[in-house]
Amino acid sequence: MPELTVKLLLLFFPGIVCYLIVDALVVHRERKLHEIFLLSFVYGLLSYVVYALVKALFGLSISATEGLRVPPPHIAILQSLYIKDSAVDVVEISLVTGVAVVLGIVVSFALNRYWFHDIARHLKITPKFGQPNVWSFALNTNEVKWATIRDMQNNLMFQGYIRAFSDVEDPAEIFLTQVCVYNEKTGERLYEADTMYIARERSNLTIEFPVAKE
């Protein structure tokens, strides 16, 4: 394998690590190949920028003649790309990868709380809420909630606490606890269950939440 190819792989390694962390922790639609490459590049670039800033911060020096002096950022792996036979700084790659891990966790935290969309809506830039669909938006309002789920096709009604649910895939999957099952038409209680897993087409389900008492 050519030396330049190895250096490029090492250069993109932190971005790939950051992308894999975000991909594992954030619910999102299926990404295309070019989106994966682009996001890995952006995350990698951010990782190197953060590393350079931290490195510059710790290299600050103050003197009576020059005042506050910030040393210019130096990234060895970038220098090695255009200098022939230059060695790859493995320690630097490891440190940037560590930065990428932290960055991936921070980005996942922000994306899962939809901070970007909240700020954009507050500034009236967009009306979008950031969730993959309205199903996720409705069920993500609280972690655990009491709900009435109506299965119109099978004439069933479920009441219980929603403990988990699928975000993107169809059929819709819901995990309930402390469940009461009723005949949807007559209201007759059929049976109870400690826990229940439901998988239905989303179009066949209606979910109702109780009115919050003030």
Protein model, in words:
The chain is α+β, with helices and mostly antiparallel strands and 214 residues long. The chain folds into 2 domains: 3-122, no CATH class; 134-208, Roll (SH3 type barrels). Helices cover 43% and strands 24% of the residues. The protein has helices spanning 3-25, 33-58, 76-82, 90-112, 115-122, 134-139, and strands spanning 61-63, 67-69, 145-151, 156-165, 172-183, 189-200, 205-208. The protein has a 5-stranded antiparallel sheet, with no helix packed on it. It has a two-stranded antiparallel ribbon with strand order 1-2. The chain is elongated and about 80 Å long. Mean pLDDT is 79; it is low at 61-66.
List the helices and strands and how they pair.
Layout lengths: L2 H23 L7 H26 L2 E3 L3 E3 L6 H7 L7 H23 L2 H8 L11 H6 L5 E7 L4 E10 L6 E12 L5 E12 L4 E4 L6
Antiparallel strand pairs: 1-2, 3-4, 3-7, 4-5, 5-6
Helix pairs in contact: 1-2, 1-3, 1-4, 2-4
The global form is: elongated
Supply the number of structural domains: 2
Helix and strand pattern: HHEEHHHHEEEEE
Number of helices: 6
Q: How many β-strand runs?
A: 7
Low-confidence stretches: 61-66
